Amino acid sequence: MAFSFNFDIPLRTEETNDKENKDDKAKCVDLKCSEASATVSKKIKDAVEHQLLLDPLSHIENWMPETITIGALPPLLCLNESVFEKTAPEREDSEEILAKTLTQNSDLISGVYEGGLKIWECTYDLLEYIDDAGETFAGKRVLDLGCGAGLLGILALKRGATKVDFQDYNSTVIEQLTVPNVFLNCEEDDENKEKSSRPPSKRKAPLNASEKLLDRCGFFSGDWNSFLRLMQNKTPLPKYDIIFTSETIYNTDYYSSLHNVFCDLLDENGIVYLATKSHYFGVGGGLHLFEKFVERNNVFQIRYLKDVEQGLKRHVVSLTFKK
């Protein structure tokens, strides 16, 4: 007995093919990002959007911030790690990361504390690159991902960014370090437009300064998967012209989550600036492994911007969507 298939097969014309090719090209980036998002790491910590306190500097009244100066960049004020070591018992710390880092004498406790209280070397490398490149941020929407002290996002604010969101794994880092640093810098800008070599006086941030910052800043904590879900629930979905991230590819387990954030939150014409070491001993990650991960997903192209040969090799690279 002979079998036959009675399917209607539509005739494909050149016009049909052209239309489908255009549709495929338009959906290319979204499709690639969807495929890259198929593998998602296990959620570790729920994301939280933090509300600004009216007096975020009250708990540092007796401590002098450090001033960081790099090239022609505006001076950046920040609390250093020693402040937290000396004042740990006095601080609100529901995560108990201050006590744990002191007792374990560790800058990193995976899944508990991801190193946000320390300003790592690669952050300075990226600041130096911005200085050399003369990068400005007027009118830009910026995400400081894994922000820690928030120096990269603060620089963007000081150079005219329209919106800067700060994200770190730990809520304690956001509340006790990032937010105070933002106010230390932006309050000083409001009250003194000219450069001053003197450290800022210990005073409360005025209410109008808080209101202005609320319009320009957002503060988030939690792991990257839950942070992305939180942002996806916003209407419209936030898209960033620039994403800064420094020393965030030390653990290969986090690559999928980080890549998903880039895919979904970077504007189609945006750029990611990533500062990293070549290799992270003890945790196994590094630029070579992350570059291989990016190549396999075939969404972004990586370009080397700056190499530092002193000590452990360090790099600043950019990621942009493949066209």
Automatic annotation (TrEMBL):
EC nos: 2.1.1.85
GO biological process: methylation
Record keywords: Cytoplasm, Methyltransferase, Nucleus, S-adenosyl-L-methionine, Transferase
Highest taxon above the source species: Eukaryota
Xref: Gene3D superfamilies: Vaccinia Virus protein VP39
Single GO molecular function: protein-L-histidine N-tele-methyltransferase activity
Annotated stretches, region: Disordered: 188-207
Class of the enzyme per the UniProt entry, highest EC level: transferase
Cellular component annotations (GO), alphabetically ordered: cytoplasm; nucleus
Cell compartment(s), UniProt: Cytoplasm; Nucleus
Family: Belongs to the methyltransferase superfamily. METTL18 family.
PANTHER family: HEPATOCELLULAR CARCINOMA-ASSOCIATED ANTIGEN (PTHR14614), HISTIDINE PROTEIN METHYLTRANSFERASE 1 HOMOLOG (PTHR14614:SF39)
Protein name: protein-histidine N-methyltransferase
Organism: Sinocyclocheilus grahami (Dianchi golden-line fish)
Source species taxonomy: Eukaryota, Metazoa, Chordata, Craniata, Vertebrata
